[in-house]
Amino acid sequence: MFSTPNSLQRRTGRFGVGRSEHLKQLLNEYENQLTNSECKLQLLANLANFSYDPINYDYLRELNIIDLFLDCLKMHTDDDYVHYALAGLCNMSADKINCKLIIEKNPTILICLVKCFFSTRLDIVLNSMVTLMFLCNHNEQEKNELIKRNEIRECLEKYSQSKDIRLSNMAKLFLQDYFR
């Protein structure tokens, strides 16, 4: 369920920590967590969860959370980090401003997302597909680059035959919207 400023205020109360401050605390804790990988992963998951609600987009942009997600996607080989970073990017890429920032901050995002297409984890594959679709919807250059890549088409054609209905349907939709 999406939030409104009034509902956030009601839940926070007069003396509670506001959304912006809470997100800042999560980010600071993530950045200062040097030894406990499990704790750091949980903080990343929390930040990704906040990215689903458009009311948080301004706060997340102010804190450069897109950069954090992009860095995790590029630097980590651990599937859990990739999953949460990609989930956060996927959630935020529903917004045109965020898509522009994602592409500006990482012009090679297409390469990162294509790499995720070939993951063994279904959640990573699906999130990479949706993120790529959102980015292409808001950027003609990304779309043109995408449809030039035969390995993507071949992968999507294979996925369209999958027994997993989510993967099959997403691949068919992707092919229909971008490759026909």
From TrEMBL:
Residues 20-47 form a coiled coil. It comes from Rotaria magnacalcarata. It comes from the Eukaryota. SUPFAM superfamilies: ARM repeat (SSF48371). This is Armadillo repeat-containing protein 7. Keywords: Coiled coil. InterPro entries: ARM-like (IPR011989), ARM-type_fold (IPR016024), Armadillo (IPR000225), ARMC7 (IPR042462). PANTHER family: ARMADILLO REPEAT-CONTAINING PROTEIN 7 (PTHR46263:SF1).
